[in-house]
Write a structure and sequence with these properties.
Elements lengths: L1 E3 L2 E4 L3 E2 L5 E9 L2 E8 L1 H7 L6 E3 L1 E7 L2 E7 L3 H23 L3 H6 L30
Length: 138
């Protein structure tokens, strides 16, 4: 999902018990604040953001102690892949719906038999009556 940043907010970077750096931050987009917790490499990405930039992000909601919070995080490679697959599925399914024929005509239509076929028969389908190896180069 593309997000246009209106405002940024971040707190001081801290170190977790497992010695990994983290930072609590917020992004305002579409008049709404989305909070997130950034770890390691995401901290560097967040620090490079500026107001007015348009970025890829993942928006989700999280329930905590009876309240629902809007959250944000940077997309993982799997998120980007899911987005691409969904777009591809929509494109294919959209085209398939246009090409579908009504059920009654599709069921009655049959391919017309070819009278003079010019197609070559692959050598694998020709039976060797003598059971001898073929002299063909393949």
């Amino acid at each position: 999902m593309k997000i246009k940043i209106e405002q940024l907010s971040s707190k001081e970077q801290k170190i977790a018990k497992n010695n990994n750096p983290y930072m609590v931050c917020g992004i305002k987009a579409g008049g709404k604040w989305y909070n997130g917790m950034m770890w390691k490499d995401d901290i560097e990405k967040f620090n490079q953001l500026n107001e007015g930039m348009e970025i890829h992000g993942v928006h989700f909601t999280e329930d905590y102690q009876g309240k629902t919070y809007d959250k944000f995080r940077f997309p993982k490679p799997l998120d980007l892949l899911e987005e691409r697959v969904t777009a591809l599925e929509n494109a294919v399914m959209g085209n398939a719906k246009k090409e579908e024929k009504p059920a009654e005509t599709a069921a009655t239509e049959q391919p017309s038999p070819s009278v003079n076929s010019t197609e070559e028969v692959p050598p694998e389908t020709i039976e060797n009556k003598d059971n001898e190896p073929s002299d063909l180069p393949f």
